[in-house]
Every structure is written in structure tokens, then in C-alpha cells.
Amino acid sequence: MDLTHKVKAGLDELRMLTLGCQVLVGFQFQAVFQELFADLPDHAKAANIAGLLLMILAVGLLMAPGIHHALYGDHQATRGVAHMTSRMADWALPPFALSLGLDVLIGAEQVYGTAAGVAGGLAFAALALGAWLGWGMLARARHGRKEREMADLRGDETADVAQKITFMMTEARTILPGAQAMLGFQLAVVLTKAFASLSPPEKALHAAALGCVALSIILLMAPAAYHRLVYAGEASPRFLTVASRLVTAATLPLGAGMAADAAVTIGFILGSAMAGAVAGGSVLLVLALLWYANPWRLLRRRLVT
What we know:
This protein is an all-alpha fold. The chain has one domain. The protein has ten helices and no strands. The radius of gyration is 21 Å and the shape is globular. Keywords: Membrane, Transmembrane, Transmembrane helix.
């Protein structure tokens, strides 16, 4: 497989993982406002908070390579982009697996009791880690050595405009479905009884989060319409520039919306607006570091050298 196809395959794999993460993030946000959530034991509520934060971290890691590719990689097929895509996917799997285990714990506990819930959560977290990382690490010792050596020797490739547009569209598709699912959960929350009990500032913050995610969806869908109406689907360097800026810009309101809803949700669970603000601020800081600070650091390093 040449490097261009390898980068495309890596972005497609990230798209699969990101959609699953973002759907679960939406569920974890919405679950807090269900009628029976208030009756959960404190450890189950804490598990939901931990699972939510872990899943947001996984989403941040999985979306980082696409943003890095746009800001730093100029949508080129490089070894650096391929390596970062693989590395971020590997780093995202442990928090994804742990969050999944916590979700199973909460669900199983309501059906079979605390002991069974804990056992089920641990079992599914271990199963996910084993299937996603352990199996591959064990197989690595016996298989794939030739392919890894070839990957180390392969040089960077120059992608043409059409291929760059394909990369950019794949990056947009990585973000869009999850953002749409999250917007659906945000809209459903507004119609719950628990939402009515929020303070006016909390309701306003959720409305702002909803608006941010909706704006992100509009920006992510704009390149497809622009490409069709202006260029009839043909490859154009001008379109690549405009579309890349739109997709990159869409991550700003998306990150803000996730952080704002994390503040509302965690503040509601703990009964403390201050705790919610700290959680939301922490989420925003982590996403900013993963999505913007690290690519900017790598860009400055490239310009210096």
C-alpha cells in the first residue's frame, strides 16, 4: 500500500471510532436528564462523570490527526501524518474502553445489581482492551515485521489536488456524523423534566452549546454544497483552500459546545455550578491543546528547521 492510500485508510479508521465515541458522548449527556438518573447511587453517578470525561478525551484524540493534517500537513501524504494517525488512535482506545466499561456497569447494575454491574463493567472494559490493543500487541511479535520495515523506509508523497480534497472530505466526514448525533441528544434533553429544573444560566449555557454544535454542522456541510454549486464537483485548489478553512473552523464551536455541555451536565450531577465550570474549562483546555496547540508547535518546529 502506498503512503497516500495508507493515510486515507488511517483517516477512515478514525472516522469509524469517532462516530462511536460521539454517539456515546451524546448518550452520556442525555442520560443525566432522564427521570431515573436521580435515583442512581452516588458511585453510578460518579461512573457517568468519569465515563463522560474519558469519552470526550477519546474524541479529542481521534479528531486531532485530521485537524493536524489540515493545519500542519497541508493535506499531504506524509509519514508524520500516518504516524500521528496511528498513535492518536492507539492512545484513544484505552479511555474509550474504560468509558465503555463504566457505561456497562451503570446499565447492568440496574438490571442485575451492584456486584454484577461491576463485574460486567470490568469484563467489557478488559474485553475491549484485549480486542483493540492486547491482541494486536501479541500478534505484532509474529506478524507484520516486513510491512513495518517497508513503512519505515517509505518516503513522503506529494498528493495532487483531487487527493487532497478526498483527504479533506474524509476529515469532515469524521466529525460530521457524531456532531449530528450530539445535536439530536441536545435537542431531546430540552424536553425532559430534569432540564426544566435547571437554573436560567444553566439553560442558557445549554442553549449556547446547542447553537455551537448546530453552527459546527453548518460549517461541516458547507464544503459539499459549495463544491457542487461552484465547481460542479471538479477538483480546484481554490475550493480546497475554502473547504479546509471551513472544516477547521467547525472544530472551534464543536469544542466549545462539548465543553459547555460538560459544564452543565457535571454541574447538574454534583449540584455545583463551580464544579461544572471547572470540568467545562478543563475539557476546553484539553481539546485546545490536542487540536490547536500541538499542531502549532509542530508547524513552528518545521518552519525553524
